[in-house]
């Protein structure tokens, strides 16, 4: 069976792929694309008359908007963090207290049946409770990014790593059969580069381009020679840059801006490139330069020359004026 999104739908997210469970309480939730290029977990439809106005959301063409749908004002949806029983709700309205109590009973039943909940965030963390805050938040669910993943660029291809560059681990196997713990990253190999994102179709693609200004920071390997770049692509450390047995396959993943939009790096990371003066010096220039002794000439030389040194241009003009090294005229044929 082939599933396709209707052409009039503003979201490219399939409902089958957007269903999940809250990592804190295990309640089934549905993730939707928000109007501001973010995502939000929503509950099933509830009677709008029993829900406070600031908790009301509706769906229009696959995109979540705050408020009640004017075409169907009797029902609305509620962001799941606003009534998750695993979180503390200090200012919870009485209208949602009964819903939270019912979900708490279901949560205890799931725990008794083997569900292992994730530790909820601290009260001081930026947890989106009512779904109408403008700050980025930590949202429960399997689709929320738990770590930073950097992208590597080489010869026009983008590869997404399993984490930051410094956490990229060698895939070679040691003599004892364990995986090599050495990192792949070496300071001085590669640099950060700002690339343009390709054209992304649909409303989802346009929201990604708007949120990232159409650009992303990637770690470029184009300045390296082929052996050094091949070591990165094989995910090997400098000590195992040979045909050593592999403990596992490389963990690279082909980067796709739609599937991996959560890992687009919009701000250049710091602390990866060597500071000025830390790397090897190829040529720092001569310490002293001797200038040509001719008045008005600005030619210089780093070589050790005596006082009164003239550059080759001034020496040539001087020889022309003084007649030095003038070729002698050959004698003509005898009369």
Automatic annotation (TrEMBL):
Protein name stated in the entry: Uncharacterized protein
Region Disordered, residue ranges: 114-148
């Amino acid at each position: 069976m082939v599933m396709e999104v209707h052409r009039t739908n503003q979201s490219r997210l399939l409902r089958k792929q957007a269903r999940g469970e809250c990592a804190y309480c295990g309640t089934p939730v549905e993730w939707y694309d928000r109007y501001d290029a973010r995502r939000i977990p929503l509950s099933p439809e509830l009677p709008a008359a029993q829900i406070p106005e600031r908790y009301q959301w509706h769906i229009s063409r696959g995109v979540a908007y705050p408020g009640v749908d004017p075409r169907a004002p009797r029902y609305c949806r509620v962001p799941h963090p606003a009534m998750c029983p695993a979180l503390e709700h200090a200012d919870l309205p009485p209208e949602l207290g009964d819903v939270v109590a019912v979900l708490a009973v279901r949560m205890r039943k799931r725990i008794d049946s083997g569900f292992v909940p994730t530790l909820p965030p601290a009260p001081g963390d930026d947890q989106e409770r009512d779904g109408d805050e403008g700050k980025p938040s930590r949202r429960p669910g399997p689709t929320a990014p738990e770590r930073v993943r950097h992208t590597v660029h080489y010869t026009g291809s983008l590869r997404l790593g399993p984490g930051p560059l410094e956490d990229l681990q060698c895939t070679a196997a040691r003599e004892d059969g364990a995986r090599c713990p050495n990192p792949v990253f070496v300071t001085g190999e590669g640099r950060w580069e700002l690339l343009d994102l390709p054209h992304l179709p649909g409303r989802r693609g346009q929201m990604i381009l708007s949120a990232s200004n159409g650009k992303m920071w990637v770690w470029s390997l184009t300045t390296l020679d082929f052996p050094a770049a091949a070591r990165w692509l094989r995910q090997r450390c400098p000590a195992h840059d040979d045909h050593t047995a592999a403990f596992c396959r490389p963990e690279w993943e082909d980067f796709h801006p739609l599937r991996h939009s959560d890992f687009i790096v919009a701000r250049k990371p710091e602390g990866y490139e060597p500071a000025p003066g830390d790397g090897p010096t190829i040529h720092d220039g001569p310490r002293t330069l001797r200038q040509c002794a001719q008045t008005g000439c600005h030619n210089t030389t780093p070589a050790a020359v005596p006082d009164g040194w003239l550059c080759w241009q001034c020496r040539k003009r001087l020889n022309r004026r003084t007649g030095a090294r003038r070729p002698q005229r050959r004698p003509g044929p005898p009369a």
